[in-house]
Amino acid sequence: VLFHSAAEAAGGSAVGIILTGMGQDGAEGLLHMRRSGAYTIGQDKDSCVVYGMPMVAHRMGGVVTQAPCCNIADIAVKYLKNL
Predict the structure, then answer these.
(1) What does the DSSP 8-state code read for residue 45?
(2) What are the phi and psi torsion angles at 81 (to 5°)?
(3) pLDDT digits over 3-54, tens only?
């Protein structure tokens, strides 16, 4: 629900990050954000406890950048500084 709301409210001004977890509801929301122009980041397989939701998001085309959890904050800050 959060990602869908962000897609509608902020569109291309949003940044979405999906972390370890199961299911695909978050992946669908992240894809909605991506299609709305948002920059999206997904946690990579090696750093996930459960590579369910980030994997689905990546396979759906909802992830622009995949990265280890420890690098995600730096990637987001670098992206935002370059706006």
Answers:
(1) G
(2) -65, -25
(3) 999 999 999 999 999 999 998 999 999 999 999 999 999 999 999 999 999 9
Among candidate residues 34, 18, 24, the one with its CA nearest the CA of residue 72:
18
Domain residue extents for the chain:
2-81
CATH code of the domain occupying 2-81: 3.40.50.180
Q: Rounded CA gap, 52 and 74, in Å?
A: 23
pTM over 0.90: yes
Cα 79 from Cα 35, distance rounded (Å): 18
Chain length of the chain? 83
Residues 43, 18: contact at Cβ < 8 Å?
A: yes
Q: What is the pLDDT, as a whole number, of residue 22?
A: 92
Diameter over CA atoms, the chain = 32
